[in-house]
Amino acid sequence: MTSLPRAVLVAVVAMCSSACGDDEDCEERSIFARPSAGGDCRTLTATCGVPDGFVECCGGLALARCDASGPEADCVDDPLDTCLPGRGADCPGICQ
Known about the structure:
Blueprint: H1 3-19, E1 29-35, E2 42-46, E3 54-59, E4 75-77, E5 92-95
Antiparallel strand pairs: 1-2, 1-3, 3-5, 4-5
């Protein structure tokens, strides 16, 4: 192997290692998320978890779980929406 291809291989491995944790599944998948600043939840295609600038959505009619946010994440009421849980509405939440 020449030094140039080896250098390229090392750079690619380093990029993947820094973008994806060793214990994370870095395959492309769909997640349900909204912008961190607020807005509607929507389906995004992402790798290695929730994209920067977004928060994973959960609960609601879709009964989405906090799969992309990690095993320690809990589904909590979204403080930025107008939905009031317990008042006859099925409100989505966010993962924290």
